[in-house]
Amino acid sequence: MWLLWFSLLHAGTAAPLRGAWREAARGDTPAQILNAFGHGALKAFNPSMLQWFPRDELGAWVVLQPGPPSADEERVLSIYPAPMGEVTLFEGKSPPRTLALDDFTAPLHGHGRLAFRLSVDREQTAPILLKFEPSSTVSAPERFELQSMDDYLQQDASWLSFAAACFAVMVAMALMASCFAVMLRDVTFAWYTGYMLCYVLVQSIQTGFLFHPLGASWLAGSELLVGASATALSVSFAALFASRFCDLSRYTPFLRIPVIALGVAMPLIVVLRCSQIPALMDMAKVLVNPVLILGAVLLLCTALMAAFRGSRPAWFFLLGWTPLLILTAMTSAQVTGALPKLDWLNDASIAMGAFEAVVLSLGLADRALTMRRDRDSVRVLADRDPLTNLLNRRAWTEAANRMLADAIEEGQPIALLFMDMDHFKALNDHQGHAAGDRALVSVADILSSELRPSDLLGRYGGEEFVAMLHGVHQEQAMQVATRLCRRVHRLDIAVDQRELLLSVSIGLAMRSLGDTLETLVERADQAMYYVKLNGRNHAHTFERRAEMSGSHHKPHSAHEQSR
């Protein structure tokens, strides 16, 4: 898709041109410049290749000599990339016409370039005289095309669809990141959003897209200041984004402070630039380019080091940032006259911005998934007993309250089993705590395998386990509890040399009207304590009988000692 667009944008449909130029001098007139051109007194250049023209002081004159046209048709002269300053066209007796990126009065607007519609009645091979007006901005090199109106409109439509698609991708990725910043409460996504929107603003000003077709007339006259500020802020956001995204505090802590300092310094330069104090504004102009260059190198080196030290997101950052950095360096080199044939670098910067937006968005998605996986892992560690891998008391209590509420709402029966291992203290005393831990793990495995996946099993504390059975009546629950007693006893875990085997005592309580989880656990615990006092290794359902009420008043410490 990118190759198709580039082939349409830079297809060779232009008529042949010969060009010459010279710096403007005081007292120059259009007639003098054309006369000098006729005598070969101007500097020749190839209009189809990028050429730099000085803009300081009085500007520069450019003369273009068209070749014979293939047909008598309306033609358009376009200047690409669109210069930031004004350009004036002189056409014989017609009044001069001046165009600029922020001009909203011209009948023909070029997208990504300046376009002059030539008069139909002018001589087809007559020289075309242009003047690049003085400008305080750093001028970029331009090339010229003379096309038929049909060819121009076709190429213009191709560029417009190309640029619109690229900007749409960047803006969409930025808006998506802003949503994630709010949902995940992660400022990393916010820094990415700021960086991408600033880059969109810079490119849309440089190409004129912000003026045509977006029609941002309110920005006319202040685009240079806004563009410079957006450039500085984009580096600031990129630095803050890289600091968190690449996890510099972990992988390159010694470079984190310089990167954050870069992120703070660039907004300060913007403040100086906007201060309207001449001395401070001059200082900002002097500082901005060196800081930009050093900042770009710093971010590149930092990301490389973080990547090689194991930062996975740093590789995403490098993949998206490095090509754009190389293109920026190549575009800067063109100002000095290098790479005159690579006129596609400006369009490539827009395309690479979209590519970077996609790559960094994939990196952010990977980061979000990693954060979710880590959070789930932490939650599992917080909810699970590290020895038996069952729910711990807190997690089981939360889940049991939810299950109980659902059962009450649905009118379903709930059974609660309170289980305590018999002779566990003696096992620890005779065989050591390692043997006790192995016994706990074995019992937990048996309980898990015997209960349904929908049953809620947890370790309540020490050698106590609890299980909540949903949708089970008392007879069924008692059958389950009896089966659990038999399965634990068949583990044949010897407690001491007297052939005493580890077993489990189980108390059962059924949910009744007005029950809470606390009252349900309390009744099941009383039933389990009754089993302890009456032979162990079996299950008993809570009943309001005399012996149960008597056991209810026994202290829990005595209960522990009897185990």
TrEMBL record:
Stored PROSITE patterns: GGDEF
Pfam families: 7TMR-DISM_7TM, GGDEF
Annotated keywords: Membrane, Transmembrane, Transmembrane helix
UniProt catalytic activity: 2 GTP = 3',3'-c-di-GMP + 2 diphosphate
NCBIfam families to which the protein is assigned, alphabetical: GGDEF (TIGR00254)
Record PANTHER family: DIGUANYLATE CYCLASE DGCM-RELATED (PTHR45138:SF9), REGULATORY COMPONENTS OF SENSORY TRANSDUCTION SYSTEM (PTHR45138)
Gene3D superfamilies noted in UniProt: 3.30.70.270
Name this polypeptide is given: diguanylate cyclase
InterPro entries attached to this UniProt entry: 7TMR_DISM_rcpt_extracell_dom1, Diguanylate_Cyclase, GGDEF_dom, Nucleotide_cyclase, Rev_trsase/Diguanyl_cyclase
Stretches assigned to the GGDEF domain: 412-544
SUPFAM superfamilies xref list: Nucleotide cyclase (SSF55073)
Known EC number: 2.7.7.65
TM ranges: 159-182, 189-212, 224-242, 254-272, 287-308, 315-336, 348-365
Enzyme kind, highest EC tier: transferase
